[in-house]
Design a protein that fits this description.
Blueprint lengths: L6 E7 L4 E4 L5 E14 L5 E13 H10 L5 E14 L5 E14 L16 H4 L5 H8 L8
Parallel strand pairs: 4-6
Antiparallel strand pairs: 1-3, 1-5, 2-3, 3-4, 5-6
Length: 147
Amino acid sequence: MRSINKVIVIGNVTRDPEIKQTISGQPIATFGIATNRDWMTKNGEHHTSSEFHEVVAWSKLADICSKYIHKGKLVYIEGYLKTRSWDTPEGVKKFRTEIVVNDLIMLDKRASGDMPAGEHTGAEDMGQGSSDGDMDQMSDMPMDDAA
């Protein structure tokens, strides 16, 4: 049976990207995205709920993120979910589910020196993307032990 692992979110960047490299030198950018959901109850009460997502970009997309993505920017992210795990020095197994970016579009108006809003930066277009080997390397690299 076929399955689908696809995520599309539009939200605001919650922190500037943190840039790291794999042992082989491939860049990795990690940052957060906040999305909001609004709804009305039958009684007319307005409610808002926020969700926070961890995001990982690889290779050329990581380079683009390091240059153009900043806290507060509105972005479109398309990718897939990946859960990784690691053991803390205390022996506690930690898990983190992240969105691995395949496509990223900056939706904010262009600021000086920024890539134009709506610029398409898809990994498929660049011949980039993560490989399973790179994701295996990353599973041993806790980006933030607080989660």
